[in-house]
């Protein structure tokens, strides 16, 4: 007999006793434990999903506390890895479920092993490089995943069922160029858009895990909570010419097509060379970064000094991150301030 903890959820007829048992037997992967990832993880824990794997490469900072709801000031003071801090908090919420915390940079070398024993993959990332990687791996292994993004007051989400619905690349054929998309660290973000996008993603997750596929919304949903604008773009069939699900070309799983990070010997620095090295408008990037730290610009580069890091971005989207020799941290700094 399932305990009283889930009684109100069981009373919801679309879930019921059988659905609750399904949730307790489900395994979910959350890629990224920032604002969306925190909201996803807490919902799963309170709903009684039996196993959740949380993977994140970053640590808690005070700037996270405005929107990343699993973390505390003590976590930020200790610079605790986000996956670990999330696991600690979730254990206080529900001690009857299993939370696996992995502190790692999700990339071509580990994504397939991370998803292989999971029923559903949830996007809690902050960059398109990782989303295209997730898409390749999930299509290759026929795993359902739910895309979600939130920045400023705008968000978007789409549920991807390989070969039954369009995949991410069917809709967004090419990854945005480095520096072309806003990030939370350049234009900010408000908590209501996090809650809104996660609510839709997690409702879809509950439907999937309880077998209610007929009730999936089947759209690319776009939300602007500040302007009270909600749009649903109906999705058709998968694109037969899609590089990923049509042609089965999983290029983001191939090492030669992944972002290249190189530790610069003796310099406490890492060079980041993204695969889509389009030309960056340095003047525009400098304006985006001007309120975040000490910014200097010339015709060849933009340099941002923020906290303990110095980020130098070149016109071809290549960057050098000083202040660390950890490639995962450097990738995180790049994703925050340049965005890919």
UniProtKB/TrEMBL annotation:
Keywords: Nucleotidyltransferase, Transferase
Taxon lineage: Bacteria, Pseudomonadati, Acidobacteriota, Blastocatellia, Blastocatellales
Family under the similarity heading: Belongs to the HesA/MoeB/ThiF family.
Tagged with keyword NADP: no
Residues of the THIF-type NAD/FAD binding fold domain: 6-243
GO molecular function: molybdopterin-synthase adenylyltransferase activity; sulfotransferase activity; thiosulfate-cyanide sulfurtransferase activity; ubiquitin-like modifier activating enzyme activity
Protein name: Molybdopterin-synthase adenylyltransferase
UniProt xrefs under Gene3D superfamilies: NAD(P)-binding Rossmann-like Domain
């Amino acid at each position: 007999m399932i305990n009283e903890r889930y009684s109100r959820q069981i009373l919801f007829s679309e879930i019921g006793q059988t659905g609750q048992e399904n949730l307790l037997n489900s395994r979910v992967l959350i890629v990224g434990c920032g604002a969306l990832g925190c909201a996803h993880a807490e919902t799963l824990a309170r709903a009684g999903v039996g196993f959740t794997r949380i993977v994140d490469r970053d640590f808690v900072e005070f700037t996270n506390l405005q929107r990343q709801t699993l973390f505390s000031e003590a976590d930020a003071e200790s610079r605790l890895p986000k996956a670990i801090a999330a696991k600690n908090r979730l254990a206080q919420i529900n001690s009857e479920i299993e939370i696996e915390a992995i502190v790692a940079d999700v990339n071509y070398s580990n994504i397939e092993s991370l998803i292989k024993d999971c029923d559903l993959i949830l996007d809690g990332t902050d960059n398109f490089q990782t989303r295209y990687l997730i898409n390749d791996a999930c299509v290759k292994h026929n795993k359902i995943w739910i895309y979600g993004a939130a920045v400023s007051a705008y968000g978007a989400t789409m549920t991807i069922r390989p070969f039954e619905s369009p995949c991410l690349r069917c809709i967004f054929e090419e990854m945005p160029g480095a520096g072309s998309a806003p990030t939370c660290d350049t234009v900010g973000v408000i908590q209501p858009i996090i809650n809104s996008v996660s609510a839709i993603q997690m409702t879809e997750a509950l439907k999937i895990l309880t077998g209610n596929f007929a009730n999936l919304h089947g759209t690319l949903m776009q939300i602007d909570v500040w302007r009270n604008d909600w749009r649903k773009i109906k999705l058709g069939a998968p694109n037969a010419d899609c590089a990923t699900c049509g042609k089965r070309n999983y290029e983001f799983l191939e090492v030669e097509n992944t972002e290249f990070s190189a530790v610069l010997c003796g310099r406490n620095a890492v060079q980041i060379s993204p695969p889509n090295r389009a030309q960056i408008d340095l003047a525009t990037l400098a304006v985006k970064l001007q309120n975040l730290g000490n910014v200097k610009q010339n015709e060849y580069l933009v340099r941002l000094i923020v906290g303990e890091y110095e980020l130098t971005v070149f016109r071809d989207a290549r960057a050098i991150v000083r202040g660390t020799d950890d490639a995962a941290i450097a990738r995180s700094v790049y994703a925050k301030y340049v965005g890919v």
